[in-house]
C-alpha cells in the first residue's frame, strides 16, 4: 500500500569527525521517502527552490517516489548546516536558512488524498493539521516533532496529537513534551495525549515502542563505522512505516518487525554521508542485515527447573 510523506527537502552541510560535506541532499521527507521506497510506493509533498539540483529530483524518481506533490518555487531551497562531535548523538546547528520552506503551505494533489498511510514529518504542527484536513480516512497517521515545536507551539502540537495514531520522538523530546524525566513515564503521558502508539528513539541505544499494554525494546545494530547520523531518525521512520504498509495490517507482531526494520534502515544511513549508503543499498543487503539482527537478539526462554 502507498505512503504519503509531508516534510522538508533540503540541502545540508554537515561536519563530523570523519569529514565535511557541503550542500548534499537532505531533509526529513527525503530520508523518509528513500527508506520507505524499498517497500512501497511513496507520495512526497514538499517545496524546493529554483536552485534545487535536477540530479536530486532524478534520484528520487529513480527510487519510484511520486513527486507530483513536490513544488518548485521562486527563491532558494531550505538549507541546514550542522556539526557533530565524537559522540555523534546530537548535532550542533550552525546555520538554518528556511528560504522557500518558510512559506510552505502543503497542498495535496487529489490523487494523494486517499493514501492509507500518512507520515507527517518534522514541520509546524499547524501544517501537520492542515495536511490532516485534506486526507480522507487514512488507516494510520504517524507524526514526528522536535524541541522547537514543543517549546514554541505547544498548544497547536497538543491539538495535532489528538488526531495522530503514532508519534515518533527522541528521548529528550519525550521528556520535554511531558515534563517526565523517566522515559517510561514520559511514554505513558504521551499515550494519554492521543496517540495509541509512541516510538521513542534513543540513537545508538536503540528505540522503545509503547502501547497501552505493550512495550517492545529494540537495540541499535552494532556498527564499526558511523560517519553521519543526519537523517537516521527519518530513515528509521521510513523503514518502520514501509513495513506496516507492506503488511497491510497493524498488530503487535508487525509493529515489532517494523521496529527492527527501522533500526536496520537507520544503521545503513549512518554508514555514509547524506543518502550515499542508501543509494547503493540492495534488497539482499537490507534483508540480510534484518536476518542478522534477528540472530543477534534471539535467545531461548530460561528453563524453569534451572538452578
UniProtKB/TrEMBL annotation:
Pfam family, one: PfkB
SUPFAM superfamilies named in the record: Ribokinase-like
InterPro entries in alphabetical order: Carboh/pur_kinase_PfkB_CS, PfkB_dom, Ribokinase-like
N-terminal signal peptide: none
Keywords: Kinase, Transferase
Lineage: superkingdom: Bacteria
GO CC field: cytosol
Domain Carbohydrate kinase PfkB positions: 26-272
Molecular function per GO: kinase activity
PANTHER family: RIBOKINASE, SUGAR KINASE
Entry protein name: Kinase, PfkB family
Amino acid at each position: 500500500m502507498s505512503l504519503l510523506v509531508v516534510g522538508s527537502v533540503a540541502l545540508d552541510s554537515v561536519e563530523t569527525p570523519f569529514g565535511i560535506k557541503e550542500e548534499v541532499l537532505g531533509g526529513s521527507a527525503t530520508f523518509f521517502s528513500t527508506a520507505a521506497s524499498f517497500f512501497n510506493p511513496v507520495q512526497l509533498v514538499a517545496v524546493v527552490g529554483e536552485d534545487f539540483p535536477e540530479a536530486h529530483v532524478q534520484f528520487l524518481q529513480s527510487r519510484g517516489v511520486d513527486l507530483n506533490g513536490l513544488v518548485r518555487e521562486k527563491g532558494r531551497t531550505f538549507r541546514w548546516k550542522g556539526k557533530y562531535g565524537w559522540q555523534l548523538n546530537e548535532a550542533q546547528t550552525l546555520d538554518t536558512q528556511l528560504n522557500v520552506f518558510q512559506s510552505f503551505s502543503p497542498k495535496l494533489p487529489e490523487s494523494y488524498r486517499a493514501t492509507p498511510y500518512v507520515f507527517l514529518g518534522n514541520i509546524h504542527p499547524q501544517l501537520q493539521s492542515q495536511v490532516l484536513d485534506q486526507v480522507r480516512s487514512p488507516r494510520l497517521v504517524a507524526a514526528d516533532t522536535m524541541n522547537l515545536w514543543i517549546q514554541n507551539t505547544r498548544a497547536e502540537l497538543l491539538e495535532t496529537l489528538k488526531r495522530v495514531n503514532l508519534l515518533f520522538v527522541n528521548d529528550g523530546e519525550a521528556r520535554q513534551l511531558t515534563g517526565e524525566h523517566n522515559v517510561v513515564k514520559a511514554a505513558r503521558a504521551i499515550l494519554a495525549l492521543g496517540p495509541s502508539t509512541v516510538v521513542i528513539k534513543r540513537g545508538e541505544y536503540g528505540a522503545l515502542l509503547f502501547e497501552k499494554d505493550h512495550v517492545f525494546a529494540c537495540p541499535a545494530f552494532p556498527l564499526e563505522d558511523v560517519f553521519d547520523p543526519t537523517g537516521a531518525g527519518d530513515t528509521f521512520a521510513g523503514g518502520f512505516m514501509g513495513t506496516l504498509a507492506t503488511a497491510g495490517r497493524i498488530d503487535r507482531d508487525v509493529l515489532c518487525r517494523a521496529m527492527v526494520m527501522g533500526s536496520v534502515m537507520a544503521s545503513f544511513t549512518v554508514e555514509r554521508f547524506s543518502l550515499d549508503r542508501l543509494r547503493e543499498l540492495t534488497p539482499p543487503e537490507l534483508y540480510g542485515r534484518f536476518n542478522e539482527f534477528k540472530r543477534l537478539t534471539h535467545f531461548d526462554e530460561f528453563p524453569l527447573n534451572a538452578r
